[in-house]
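Structure (tokenized):
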């Protein structure tokens, strides 16, 4: 028997694009959506979970593994769809389980042609390999969403807190971000050429949820992410509203920036995730091949550690830590809770 290009799932429907009206109400449908072809003409299909409630409502899109090594969004989608009561669900949840399938199969972040899909959205119908792939993903999947939560993690050699990037001045996306109850909320208006920015330009309110570390599943962050997404769904009228998760309120940041090494060597970052640092506080040190301290790095301003490097090998220009600048009472989106 001839096997298809990707995995053969006999209980999944192979479709050329997302057609929600053709899918049954009150059920979860497994789809394999065709988005491209390899050099032998084999179809590249993305696994998509579609949960349709019995009653009308909005379409919430959830995308995981836009970068092939960022995996925590996958168990979030599995756990969320398994727990949905479809008799109570209003509207539809569309979970793109693996957005960048070619990269995931290679255990790498970027598309096989070396380009970052999240820097070339919405792609081009007449573009190169990655641009065409991006265009078809947007055209065949994303344009059907009413709201989008794009699920990411840190990349290789780095770790992240559980944090959200969103335009906090936008009433809809600011509310979605707060309902997720992450550790950190970062005000970050959507950039063009990102999936979030493309969705916003299409009139689809979109936020990015960063769920910890790459190339692993983090159960604690997965559980928190599912609870936060259910809270967003409750606010959208898709589920009954639930109480916000207990615990400290998110730290709200008005902006952020990365610190980088100026020399090469072996890097050790001491500051912990979500830690607050004072101006001039030592956060990392660099040693040479003989163990001599080459440089100590200090926080340029007061801030909170959103993410950091855990890779000791640090050439000149390597990332050290991602430092968030706390919001001020004068900021329009500032809140103490």
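Design, position by position:
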């Amino acid at each position: 028997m001839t096997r298809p290009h990707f995995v053969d799932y006999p209980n999944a429907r192979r479709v050329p694009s997302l057609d929600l009206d053709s899918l049954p109400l009150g059920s979860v449908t497994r789809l394999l959506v065709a988005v491209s072809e390899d050099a032998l003409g084999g179809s590249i299909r993305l696994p998509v979970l579609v949960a349709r409630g019995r009653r009308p409502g909005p379409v919430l899109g959830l995308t995981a593994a836009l970068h092939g090594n960022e995996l925590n969004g996958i168990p979030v989608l599995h756990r969320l769809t398994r727990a949905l009561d479809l008799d109570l669900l209003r509207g539809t949840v569309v979970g793109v389980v693996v957005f960048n399938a070619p990269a995931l199969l290679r255990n790498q972040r970027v598309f096989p042609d070396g380009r970052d899909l999240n820097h070339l959205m919405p792609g081009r119908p007449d573009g190169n390999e990655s641009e065409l792939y991006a265009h078809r993903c947007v055209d065949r999947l994303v344009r059907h969403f009413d709201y989008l939560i794009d699920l990411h993690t840190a990349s290789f050699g780095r770790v992240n807190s559980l944090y959200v990037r969103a335009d906090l001045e936008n009433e809809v996306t600011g509310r979605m971000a707060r309902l997720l109850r992450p550790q950190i909320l970062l005000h970050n208006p959507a950039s063009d050429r990102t999936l979030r920015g493309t969705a916003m330009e299409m009139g689809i309110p979109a936020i990015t949820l960063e769920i910890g570390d790459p190339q692993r599943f983090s159960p604690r962050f997965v559980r928190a992410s599912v609870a936060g997404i259910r809270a967003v769904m409750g606010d959208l009228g898709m589920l009954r509203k639930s109480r916000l998760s207990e615990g400290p309120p998110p730290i709200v940041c008005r902006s952020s920036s990365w610190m980088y090494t100026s020399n090469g060597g072996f890097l050790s970052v001491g500051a912990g995730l979500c830690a607050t640092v004072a101006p001039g506080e030592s956060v990392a040190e660099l040693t040479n091949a003989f163990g001599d301290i080459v440089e100590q790095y200090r926080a340029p301003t007061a801030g909170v550690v959103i993410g950091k490097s855990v890779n000791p090998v640090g050439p000149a220009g390597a990332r050290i830590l991602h430092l968030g600048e706390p919001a001020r009472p004068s900021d329009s989106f500032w809140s103490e809770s």
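Reviewer-requested clarification: Residues 257-326 form a domain with the OB fold (Dihydrolipoamide Acetyltransferase, E2P) fold (CATH 2.40.50.100). The chain has two domains: 13-235, 257-326.
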